[in-house]
Recover the amino acids of this structure.
DNA sequence: ATTATCAGATTTGTCTGACAATATCTTGAC
DNA sequence: GTCAAGATATTGTCAGACAAATCTGATAAT
């Protein structure tokens, strides 16, 4: 039901023979994304972005040209172009006339972008990724929380407190994870430094990745909840130094969970 | 000259009369960007993005529709769409059929993106921006440098050293600033944590903004150079704690320069 | 009176086909 | 061998059409 679409441009001739199976698979993958509600260009950006981050097209190489993509996925060139523009906006590639779209060196990628981080997180070695994020959190979160302890407004405090209690009363793990994320992001917002807020994607990514690991021990959840409440209390009482330490304890706990997952 | 832009919700007919002059001005501005080498969609993304960050279209409001942009700037709808897709990729807006493109809340913006940061930096209050970035650097750079001191490879060390010496021998301020940026970014790379690298844009932004302030005192440059060399030495000798302190001294010096500029 | 359903209108989404601009590569002249 | 001019491939830009989604308001049913 999908193969009949291929009718359009059998192209010149060469590409038509060999990659038939591949093309089928590509289409299937794209359809798979599309039915998940996204538009064509979004699904394309997702697919191509994932391939780049995954390493299918290493930095410095040029991607297939627009017409090729358009044939491969049986979509219009406009859709391909819009997808590529999105990836350009994330610094994954640059494109110039006649030369095509070249993958940028990794250290230019906008790794702290939600999508890019998502593609990056789905890389083969998740544990390594998690450890990198955790190291980053060790740098950011204690200081951000200390700032929050001194600068938070009452509204911000209320958000933090609410997220914390909702973590405790959540009845599903998904619900709890959502509140957990909200808790940490609220702290970043309360830090009073706008530049810290975008780093919330890192926390989101960590917790989403961790999602598969936890659930096991009830005691773990209980202890983690205590650690969160400690942090909430430090911010409420405006104790920056204590807040720093409380956050470090929580991160250490998270590290431990990751470590246990790694040794399984 | 900003209040007349507010023609938006004038709705169906009112908007047609008044903004004739504006349209001219808009076109002129766009041409101005275009002759600076960029493509149409890039120039458009720049213009619209800047307007959003500047606050012309506050979060939650709906932008003019695609046809309106296309008329205003006398470009094709495709170009507008590609520009908007770029801004979507930076989380500045979301667009849905029939409802239009809505500006996202500020805390969803990808503030650590190079372009967004650039637009943000050109806001009315540069000093405030600089102070925010500096606070962020205080959090990140000492730790990143400490990590670099323990983990740097020989190649990475060479890069750092080279950038440092080139800072010293630079004959133009622009050259020096470039080497300065390269120095700090090399340290981030050497930290061994990939997530730190994208934060280089912050340093780049700071130094670019500072560009207008310095030059004055030769002694300042000399002292700053010493501070950089201290950092280089700490990394070379693998002294993380000393590196942390050296970076804090440099940041304090930068703060002082900013403070002096502020009081003028 | 409130809710449910449907028709119409508006805006983005997608496709198509054409031509322009640009950079690379090739060919030819010197 | 070097340099210049042209061929060529690829993105950039444009115009116009239709599809899909969703908001609005009107009408009908409970």
């Amino acid at each position: 039901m999908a193969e009949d679409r291929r009718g359009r441009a059998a192209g010149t001739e060469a590409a038509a023979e060999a990659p038939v199976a591949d093309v089928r698979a590509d289409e299937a993958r794209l359809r798979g994304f599309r039915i998940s509600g996204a538009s064509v260009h979004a699904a394309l950006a997702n697919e191509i972005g994932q391939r780049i981050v995954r390493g299918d097209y290493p930095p410095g190489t040029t991607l297939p040209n627009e017409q090729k993509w358009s044939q491969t996925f049986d979509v219009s060139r406009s859709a391909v172009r819009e997808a590529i523009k999105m990836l350009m906006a994330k610094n994954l590639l640059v494109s110039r006339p006649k030369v095509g779209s070249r993958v940028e060196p990794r250290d230019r990628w906008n790794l702290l972008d939600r999508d890019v981080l998502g593609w990056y997180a789905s890389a083969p070695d998740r544990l390594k990724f998690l450890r990198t994020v955790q190291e980053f959190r060790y740098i950011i979160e204690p200081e951000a929380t200390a700032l929050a302890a001194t600068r938070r407004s009452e509204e911000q405090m209320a958000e933090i407190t609410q997220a914390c209690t909702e973590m405790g009363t959540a009845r599903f793990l998904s619900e709890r994870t959502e509140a957990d994320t909200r808790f940490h992001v609220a702290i970043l917002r309360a830090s009073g430094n706008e530049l810290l807020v975008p780093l919330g994607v890192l926390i989101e990514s960590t917790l989403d990745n961790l999602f598969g690991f936890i659930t096991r021990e009830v005691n773990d959840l209980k202890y983690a909840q205590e650690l969160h409440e400690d942090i909430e209390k430090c911010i409420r009482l405006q104790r920056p130094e204590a807040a720093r330490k409380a956050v470090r304890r929580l991160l250490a706990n998270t590290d431990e969970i990751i470590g246990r997952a790694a040794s399984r």
User: Anything to note?
Assistant: The first strand of chain A starts at residue 93 and ends at 96. Strands of chain A lie at 93-96, 100-103. Residues 1-20 of chain A have pLDDT under 50 and may be disordered.
